[in-house]
Design the sequence.
């Protein structure tokens, strides 16, 4: 679609290693903040949301940002109306990093 608006996709794919970081922090008494920083790619946001909802974590809101080739996304999440416990935090980290 970018080509339609005059922005042409690069001819060559850029091979850059970007370390993935997943941080889960308390974000109030009833929710957590899930921060994901990883290499940006087409479909990343959809993939992350699918993973989060597959483990029954509710996304209340999100702040989506891309800086160059790096996606920096914050998700305000809860599980059954409560913040994530340490087990769910580890599950989210393992699944997103897989």
Sequence:
């Amino acid at each position: 679609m970018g080509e339609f608006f005059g922005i042409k996709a690069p001819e060559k794919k850029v091979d850059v290693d970007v370390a993935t970081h997943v941080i889960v922090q308390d974000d109030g008494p009833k929710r957590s903040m899930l921060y994901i920083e990883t290499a940006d790619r087409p479909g990343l946001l959809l993939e992350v949301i699918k993973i989060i909802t597959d483990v029954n974590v509710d996304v209340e809101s999100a702040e989506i940002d891309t800086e160059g080739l790096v996606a920096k996304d914050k998700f305000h999440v809860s599980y059954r109306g409560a913040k994530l416990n340490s087990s769910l935090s580890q599950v989210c980290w393992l699944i997103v990093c897989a």
Observations:
- The helical segments are 44-54, 86-97.
- The chain has a mean pLDDT of 81.
- Residues 24 and 90 are 9 Å apart (CA to CA).
